Fold:
Amino acid sequence: MGGLYQRILKLSCIGALRKCRSAIIASMKTPIPRFLPLFNLVVLLLVLPLGETRALLYPPVGDADYYASSLAIFLPDELAVVDVTMSQAALDSLLADPWSDEYRRCSVRFRNSVIDEVVDNVGIRVRGNTSRAAIKKSWKLSFNTFVPDRKFHGLEKMNLNGEHNDPSIIRSSLAMDLYRKTQTASSRTHHVLLKINDGSQVDGVQIHVEQIDEEFVQAWFANKDSSLYKCLFKGARANLNWVWPGDGDAYKNLGGGETYEEKNLDSPNYADLAEFIDFINQSSDALFADELGKRFSLDNFLRAMATDVAVGNWDNYWFGANNYYLFFNADSGRFEYIPYDVDNTFGVDFLGTNWATRPWLTWGDGGYGSEGGELPSLIRRILLHEPYRNQIRRYLRELVEGPFFLPAMENRIDQVKELIGPFAFAGSYDDGNMDWGYTREMFHESYTAPDAYRDWAWGWDYGLKPYILDRNSFLYGTVAPVDPLPKIRINELQSSNNATIADEWGDFDDWVEVINAGTVSLQLGGLFLSDTVSNPTRFEFPDTILAPGSFLLIWCDSEPEEGPWHSEFSLSSAGEQLGLFHRSSEGMAPLDTLRFGPIPSDWSRARIPDGLGDWEFTHHPTPGRGNETVAVPEGAGLEKALAIWPNPITENSEISFQMSIAGSAKLRVISPSGREVFNAEGEFPAGAGRFYWDGCDLRGRALPAGLYLIRIETGGRRANGKILILR
Structure:
C-alpha cells in the first residue's frame, strides 16, 4: 500500500480485530457461501453485539452477502480509500450533466486494512436529488450494470455521498447509527476518501451509505421478491394521502412516476401500495388501531419517528413527506418502513427553525409535507391514537436516557473527527472550493460551534456537540415518562424435546414458557409470540389471565390445529430468534426478545432467577414451574459473586472472583448504552482470580462518567457486578 493509505491506517488505530477479519477473508479460496458454518461463527464473534437478549433482534443474521460486506467493507473505524479511473471525457460529461442517470464505465480500486482490490467495468454516475447541483457531488458505483449479477464483497452498489450541507461530514452517519441502536432497519455507513482520476476535480471525504435494494431487504426481511418503493417529495408529496381514483396507476404515475418509484420488480402494478394507502385513509378509527400493526411495521416506524425528532431530521415523512422506502413483505403481509437520506440533521437548518427546542408532538406542524393544513395521513392518524403517541414518547425517553446523550456519543464523534480531519475539505475542495464556502477550519470549528442556534439560513446553524446537549436537555425536560409495558417475559425454551414433556396429544414438541414477572394480573389476549421479528403476529395469545409469578406453556410445533396453545411455527434446534409483542392497538411494541443458539437435546435455555436473570443452559428443564439453579458444566466455574475495589474507580480497580477449578476466564465491561468497551482474558488456577481495569477502553482512552456493567464469564457461567466512573 502507498504512503497515503499507510497514513490513514495509522490514524484508524487498526487492531487485532481487523487483522482477524483480513486473515479470515484471505484464507477463503472459494466464495463465502461454501464456508457458511465457519463464516456464521466468525460473524457472530466480530459483527453482532454481545449478549443474547436485546430490545429487538437486529442486525440481520444468516445472510452471507450482509456478512461479507460487514467483514470487508463497512469498517466504521477506518477511512477507506476509493480510487476511480475513467476517461476524462466521460467524467467531464457527468459533471456537465449531473442529472443524467446514465452509467459510465470506470475502474475502481478499494483499499482498507482488509482488502486492496481493483474492479474493472464498474458503472459510475452522479446520484441524489437536489445534491446533484452541489459542488461536492454524491456518486453511485454499480458493480452489476456492465457485469450482470456481479457483487463486490456482497454489494451490488455503493452510494458515496458528498454531505455538502454538513461541515462536519458525520451527521448522516451518526443518525444511521442511532436508527440501528433503536433497532430500526437502516443503512450501514463508513467514511471513504474518494479520488477520481488525478483528483483535480473530485478528491475528498465522502460517506458510503448502504444501498437500499433487493439485497438489503433480503438481509433484513428474508424476502427480496416483493415491491420496494422509494418515496420522495418529487413532483408531489409522498404523504400516503389518497389520490383519485385510488388504484395502482394513481400512485404509479404520481409526480411523473417519481413520488412512489418502485425499484425492485420488472412489472409492478402498485396494487399493494394502493390497498395500503386506502386502508390508511379510509378505515374507521377502531379498524385502524386494531389492524395497522398487522399491515405495517408500526413499532419500527414509531422508533424511526422518535429518532428523527431527536436528531432534528426535518426532511423526513413527518415534516416533509419525503425520504423513506416502503417494502411490502409478502411473507408477512406487512409494509416495512426504512428511513433514507438523513444529512439534514443535528442542527442543520434552512428553514429558520431551532430544531433543538422544537416540541415533539408538533414536530410536523407547518411542514412542507402538510397539505391543506393537515399532516401526512399516516402520522396524522397515528397521533390521534394515545397508545401510539405514548410509544413515541417511550422511545424518545429511551433515546435521551441512552444513546442520544453526548457522553454516550462523544468518543465516537471524536474518533471520526480524528480519522477524517486531515483530509476534510482538502484536495479538490480546498481553499473554499466547496458548497457554502466550507473550509478545513470550519470543519474543525463545526463540531463545537456555534454553541447555540443561529439563523444564518445556510445550513450550519448549530455546532454538532452543542446541538446534542441542547436537544437532549430539552427533550428530557419536556417528554414525560410513560407507564411501563406489561412485564411478561420469555422464561424458558426448549428447541429439541425428545423426552422432557409431552403435549396433550402425547407429542414431544418444542415449547416456550412465559412468566408474568410483574405484580398485577395480565390479560394476554391479543399479545403475540413469534420467531420472526418482521412477522410478529405468528401466534396470538387467546384470552386468558396470567397471575403474577405464574407460568404458561406454548407448544411450538407448527400444528395450530391441535389447540389454542399450539403455534404455527417450530423452534430451530440450530438456534433462531424469539419475541413477545404487544397488541396492534398498543403499537405492537416488543415486550421481550432474544436470539438463541443451538441447544442440546432435552436441555433448555432458562432465565435464572425467573423472569429477571441471565440466560443459562440447563439439563433439568422445568416447563410450567420455577427454574432451578443450573449445575456448573464441565470446566471452570465461578463460586461466588464478584468483589470490585475501589468502587468508584480511581486509577485502577481490582475485580476479584473465585474459580472452582482451574481454567480460563474473560472480563467484559459494558457501557451504560449497552456497548462492550473493554475486555480481557486470562488463565487462572482454582481459587482466587483477579483482573485489573483502569477505566479506559481498548484503545486506552478514558471512558466517560457513568455506571458500567462488569461481567466475568467462565465455563458457561457468568457473574455480574457494577462499577462507577466519576470524572
In short: The mean pLDDT is 88. The first helix runs from residue 3 to 12. The CA atoms of residues 270 and 552 lie 43 Å apart.
